[in-house]
Amino acid sequence: MKAFTEALEHELRNIPGCSVRAHLLIPGFVFTGLTAKGRTEKPEGAWTPDQTVDFMLTSLERGDFYILCPDNDVPRELDERRILWAAGDIVENRPPLSRWHPDYADAFKAFLDQR
Q1: 89 SS3 class
Q2: 82-105 residues labelled b (16+ CB within 10 A) or e (exposed)
Q3: Contact between 74 and 28 (Cβ < 8 Å)
């Protein structure tokens, strides 16, 4: 999805006079029917769909392409570190989502501790 949306925005911005844009929403924990898992009460860490949409609209008004939407559980700095680690999965040919792989647990923790 990321690569497709980046390519689409690149294509659109190179069309003279084009007023259509593409943006990539990267949501945090949003409480919806898909994430409820049988719960009826919104977990404390989750945002509501309305909060997510409000954040997205504010980001669009600023002209952001990457819309890294927070939640009440994970601070932005941690999201950013996770994204950087995930890029390393590709560059270093680690398994996908290696941060959850036991062989990489210590390395991931050390990575997060770097500031």
Answers
A1: helix
A2: beebeebbeeeebeeebbeeeebe
A3: yes
Q: Phi/psi at 68 (nearest 5 deg)? A: -85, 95
For the chain, give every domain's residue range: 1-73, 75-115
| Length of the chain measured in residues | 115
Question: From the DSSP assignment, how many helices (H) and strands (E) are in the chain?
Answer: 4, 2
CA–CA gap between residue 2 and residue 100 (Å, rounded): 21
pLDDT digits (tens, 9 = 90+) for 59-111: 999 999 999 999 999 999 999 999 999 999 999 999 999 999 999 999 999 99
pLDDT of residue 107: 97
Amino acid in position 92: E
**Angstrom distance (rounded) from CA 63 to CA 43:** 31
Q: Are 3 and 17 in contact (CB under 8 A)?
A: no
Hey, how many other C-beta atoms are within 10 angstroms of the C-beta on 44?
8
CA–chain centroid gap for 56, Å, is 12
